[in-house]
Specification:
- The protein is mostly beta strands.
- The mean pLDDT is 89.
- Helix content is 0%, strand content 55%.
- The chain folds into seven domains: 48 residues, no CATH class; 84 residues, no CATH class; 85 residues, no CATH class; 86 residues, no CATH class; 85 residues, no CATH class; 87 residues; 32 residues, no CATH class.
- The protein has no helices and 54 strands.
Amino acid sequence: MSLGAVSGNFIDKNAGTGKTVNIAGLTLSGADARNYALSSTTATASANIAPKVLTTGGYQVTSKVYDGNRSAAVTGGVLSGALAGDSVSLTSVVASFSDKNAGLAKPVTIAGGLLSGADAGNYSLSSSGSTATADIVPRPVTVGGLSANNKVYDGTTLAVVSGGVVTGAVAGDTVSVNVGASAFADKNVGTGKLISVSGVALAGADALNYSLASTSTSLTANIAARPVTVGSISVSGKTYDGTTAAQVSGGSLLGAVSGDAGSIGALSGSFLDKNVGTNKPVVLSGLVLNGGDASNYSLNPGSVSAVASIAPRVVSVSALTAGDKVYDGTTSATLLGGVLSGAVAGDNVALAPVSGNFLDKNVGAAKPVAVSGLSLTGGDAGNYTLGLVGVNASASITPKPLVVSGITALNKPYDGKTDATIDTSKAVLSGLVAGDLVTTTEMKAAFADKNAGTAKKVLLTGLGLTGADARNYTFSGDSVTTADITVRESSNWLGAAGDLWSDPKNWDVVPEGANVRSVVFPANT
């Protein structure tokens, strides 16, 4: 036995779960159905009404300018599968590009969306969504703030452009500017030179999402002269010549660009002063650049230096002689004359006072003189050195005159002789050099004649010197003194009767003229 065919109705048409179903017209069927009776022909049950799945289509996606996100603007859209008469429509559809980057016919995923309307709750959207394509076109940006770097002349037109500010990019994007080859109008030195900028491009992870709308490329910069120096300069040393002139040779340009037409002019130089010295600075002149590219270079004369030496000039001395001298107990000699040869005209240089020495101190003729201490004097003396010295020096040392004083002769009575007696007890030898060993020898004295008289001249003879240094002296001055020969009171006859009066042996003193006052004869004569 079973229930017969039955039917039921939900309490409403709307989707839901555990919805009440009213069942009516319950009957029994089967062979034994008649033996039974239903207590009620109605009943209730529960069941679900699932939302009807709708599909969408007919979307239109609008292409966009790159904005840094995946969002897409979608329009249109048609629901398929809704029951006729139901009030249901599609709202809030969401569309997204596959990525944010610029591109053509990029896939767009359309998803989400909401159903609205009185019957919207009875439907659901298919989870498979819809697809479409659209373009994301590069975002136009502008580049400004480019600047060209000044440079030192390098023989090329190459210009370095730097900086650059991208305006209009999406915040947070990595996009910058690369500048390709840029060039000055020409390679030459100048200020405010026009630069041709080319190859401006965007760089960075997001660069492909942008396009350059405009680029400020009116740039100028300066090309400064290239500093160069001069090398391989040689300055010859010289012998002092009284001038500052220096002989310069060589000289090559260092630091110029290979292939440029440039050279240095003829060089000349001068020492800072004319005087002798080693490694003396030389001031170079003529440091100018020549050639077609000379204007592209700068040469600082102060950066080029050179040194050289001025050697002393050799001068010779001739006609130097020694002067004779009177013995003075020393070997010193006075040098005379001296002609300096080889000096520069007008220079203040002369032979300094020169000293010489005899080989010994003693008197002699044509004695060799050793010359020492030859030197130069004068404001320019330091620029010279003595070379050949023509000295043939010899001279004589003559004896030094000595004066003897204090020798006196004694008065005597007439004795018919010229002999005189002297007193040397107060004799003084004047003119001796201190330390010399000299004494006088014994001397003799004689009246000029034998006759009586007052203040008669007495001649000193045999006056000599002795001692180690005696030969270096001679006597000078008067070798004469005076004394009296008084008249003799008497002369005594010594002879026999008949002897001759004129025979001197017959008298103790011959009575001549007025020399004897009287004569005395023995009584037996």
